[in-house]
Specification:
The structure holds two protein chains of two kinds.
Chain A (H helix, E strand, L loop, with lengths): L3 E4 L2 E5 L4 E7 L4 E9 L6 E7 L4 E4 L2 E6 L4 E6 L8 E9 L5 E3 L3 E6 L1
Parallel strand pairs in A: 2-11
Antiparallel strand pairs in A: 1-3, 3-8, 4-5, 4-9, 6-7, 7-8, 9-10, 9-11
Chain B lengths: L3 E4 L2 E4 L5 E7 L5 E7 L6 E6 L6 E2 L7 E3 L5 E6 L8 E8 L10 E2 L3 E5 L1
Parallel strand pairs in B: 2-11
Antiparallel strand pairs in B: 1-3, 3-8, 4-5, 4-9, 5-6, 7-8, 9-10, 9-11
The chains are: A mainly beta, B mainly beta.
Chain lengths: ~110, ~120
Amino acid sequence: KNQVEQSPQSLIILEGKNCTLQCNYTVSPFSNLRWYKQDTGRGPVSLTIMTFSENTKSNGRYTATLDADTKQSSLHITASQLSDSASYICVVSLYGNNRLAFGKGNQVVVIP
Amino acid sequence: NAGVTQTPKFRVLKTGQSMTLLCAQDMNHEYMYWYRQDPGMGLRLIHYSVGEGTTAKGEVPDGYNVSRLKKQNFLLGLESAAPSQTSVYFCASSPHSSGGAYEQYFGPGTRLTVT
């Protein structure tokens, strides 16, 4: 059973619009939560990393939120651009562990 | 500063053949990782290393071996390739443990097909 669930699985949005991606996790004990962007045919690139004490972090037009009590996170993309077309992966780090638990990703397609 | 590089980028093997995937990083990172990514699944950890000369098993280590003879290099070996090992392989490195809020930097990936 995957410990990190993402929704929606895929999303098509118009250029310039906003969108929000969801991540629910059951990983425990929790250390930090990451969002990665993965362009087709490339390796993942880190967008944000949040520890359990942080509830929001921004990176340009990307804003991640974290509710450690409900074990939920979201990634909000503002004023989407064609270059935002990618898979967005939610990743949770276990406390005291070298391993990461990866979600399957949210596939976002931005159309003009 | 090239970051994390992987060779080769693509490879086709026949069942039973062997090969080695090379990962190199120029950021002086202690930790290095090998993942595989399959359609419809999240990345899964194969093996990792916490420093030169060390290796440890990850989530899906069977059929793979690794070596970290030099700090900057992490090799992934397939002794006898099987069709189930058809996947995209990613190497990553980080300065410290993932349990801390340290970024993992990923390479561009190696697409391996086993026929």
